[in-house]
Amino acid sequence: MTITLYDLVSLTPGIAWSSNTQKTRLCLNFKGIPYRTEWVEWPDIKGVYEKHSLPASSRFHDGSPKYTLPVIYDPSTGATISDSLAIAEYLEKTYPDTPKIFPHGTVGLQAPFEDMYIEHSKSMVPLLIPNICRNIMTPTSLPVYQPYMEKLLGMKMADFDAKSEVAVEKWRKYKENLEVVARWYRKTDGPFLMGDTISWADFVVVSIMMMFRAVWGEDSQEWKDVVSWNEGVWGNLVEELDRYTTVF
């Protein structure tokens, strides 16, 4: 009765790189719920939805269906769920005797935090795309992933220049935005947003950090810079939660 977590394949077998699927993996590992990962090529994501008769998780601006991961299938209930927040809420409700992702019923507060943090992180997406295409995407996934991202971001791959003045400004803006979030973390008495208590908000933050590490590499200057910012708040958070990123 093991849960299946559908995750995105990469050139390096067994490497989890997507921040969205990483949030679900963090939840499953933190709660200690048995699961297995099924790796999916980008063109096969729609097939996961069709296999489980699952409607598209969202839609593009033009109204066309948007199929995304994570998706989980829970054979103990027969449920198939998409979207990392919806999955977290499902796990919280279905497995109430495991550690809480939303302590003290705080989902109503933590969901908006996720929206805010992702908004603060959007400037980094164009800087990651060239590395994802070069270091992550398989030959099967790349021809679908690249036009998908171009459609999503409204720009062609030729415009993704990580060394341009625009990119430097996006990097500066991201660092500035992280300082806002770091101030909230500094108001607590522990490494987490709720002090000594791990919660969804921490998974949201660290999942994006884990994506940076996977895409840029642990020895890259970009990764070393990010984990050193804000008096090491992010490096400490990664260290505290890294044990929940194990791939099963």
TrEMBL record:
GO molecular function, one term: glutathione transferase activity
InterPro entries: Glutathione-S-Trfase_C_sf, Glutathione_S-Trfase_N, GST_UstS-like_C, Thioredoxin-like_sf
Taxonomy, superkingdom: Eukaryota
GST N-terminal domain ranges (all copies): 8-99
Pfam families: GST_C_7, GST_N_2
UniProt GO BP: glutathione metabolic process; L-phenylalanine catabolic process
Annotated PANTHER family: MALEYLACETOACETATE ISOMERASE
Name this polypeptide is given: GST N-terminal domain-containing protein
Species this chain originates from: Pholiota conissans
